[in-house]
Amino acid sequence: TRMRYMFDWGAGIAFKYEKIFARHGYYFKHPCHEYPVPDGRIQEVWADTDMLLVVHKPDPTKSRGQYLDLLELSVKEDPDCPRNAFYYARELSFHSKWREAIDACNRYLKLPRADWVNERCYAYRVMGRCYAELGDHWDAERAFQMAAYEAPNTREPWAELATLFYRQGRWEECLATSMKGLRITNREMVYTVDPEVWGPKLHDLAAISAYNLGLYQIAENHGKIALDLAPDDERLKSNVVFYTQKPLEAA
């Protein structure tokens, strides 16, 4: 009665989706980010396929501004649903409503059914970014640490911490968290993945922090890997030249 298939959201994010279902026996729930729910007349039977890919093609001429109001309505209609509670919190951050987003993330995290560690990690990541936007770096770090606690085997929270430490010039911590993230090689096919952390970012942060610690060979090694992952990036090209020349100058 229902099928799981791959959904390409764009921006390097792909995950399993499940919105293909039988004509009868289902209804859509929620004002937006609708989700099909069996109505009780049927016994669900699932099929899983790797032969189908649905690609998300949003119309760039249309606004998504209505999502915030619809998600707020969704939370009011079904206050115990963690899915749209998180989407609402994230949407608030998209609109730069930092304090409201933090409050909404905290509300989501307290819901009894908010038990998916990847999404809980994502909520703490959103909170951390909001605190950083408000200039509250202590609470930003605390939120990112909680994100790492929730899902330590995902790269995203370590990248958030490394970025925060980079901005603060805390080079030892930046290098340590960058390397921690790079040791994670399993990229899950879920919507909480940030494609950026699977590109040059962590190698770039490792290189910059290693250079500032006088670890020039490590800086050169990671700088070259970052460039291999983004060969057209002029800044990364310049950095590799810089890292390569520095040991010669020191000699």
- CATH topology term of the domain at 66-163: Serine Threonine Protein Phosphatase 5, Tetratricopeptide repeat
Cα-atom radius of gyration: 21 Å
Question: How many beta-strand runs?
Answer: 5
Give a short account of the largest sheet. 3 strands, mixed
Q: What pattern of helices and strands is seen along the backbone?
A: EEEEEHHHHHHHHHH
- What is the name of the CATH architecture of the domain at 66-163? Alpha Horseshoe
Q: What gross morphology would you assign?
A: globular
User: Kindly, what is the distance between the CA atoms of the first and last residues, rounded to a whole number of angstroms?
Assistant: 70 Å
User: What would the average pLDDT be, to the nearest integer?
Assistant: 94
Indicate the proportion of strand residues.
5-15%
What is the name of the CATH class of the domain at 66-163? Mainly Alpha
CATH superfamily grouping of the domain at 66-163 = Tetratricopeptide repeat domain
Proportion of helical residues:
40-55%
What is the topology, as strand order, of the major beta sheet? 2-1-5
List low-confidence stretches: none
Helix/strand class: alpha+beta
